[in-house]
Every structure is written in structure tokens, then in C-alpha cells.
Write a structure and sequence with these properties.
The chain is mostly helical. Helices cover 75% and strands 0% of the residues.
């Protein structure tokens, strides 16, 4: 059972990251649609939104890694 001793804290650390990542991704997509007045977000811009939200949420939730 010692193998699973760190599983709880690791799983609890993923929830804030996932929440911040999803919120930032949706925010970036919403900002893009408001700025360009287009309903569809192109695949390239979705990639940029996802990459940017991943970097920022990782920095916000795991600042020392």
C-alpha cells in the first residue's frame, strides 16, 4: 500500500490545474470571438488558446515546477 501513499495529494493537485486551465481556455476563446466577431474559432487559434491556457495554468498552480 505504500505505493499509493502519494496518490491522494497528486490527484488533489490536478483539480485546481484542470479548473484554471478550462476557465482560461474558455476565456481566451470567448475573447477571440468577441474581438473578431466570428462565431467559429479556427483550429490554429484554438491551438494557441489551448497552449497559452496550459502554460498559464501550469505556472499558476505549480509555480516551482
Amino acid at each position: 500500500m505504500a505505493f499509493y501513499s502519494g496518490l491522494g495529494p497528486s490527484v488533489m493537485g490536478v483539480f485546481p490545474y484542470a479548473g484554471v486551465n478550462l476557465a482560461m481556455y474558455d476565456g481566451f476563446r470567448l475573447a477571440y470571438t468577441k474581438f473578431t466577431k466570428k462565431e467559429q474559432v479556427p483550429k490554429e487559434m484554438a491551438l494557441v488558446c489551448g497552449s497559452l491556457s496550459g502554460v498559464l495554468s501550469s505556472t499558476a498552480t505549480f509555480p516551482l515546477e
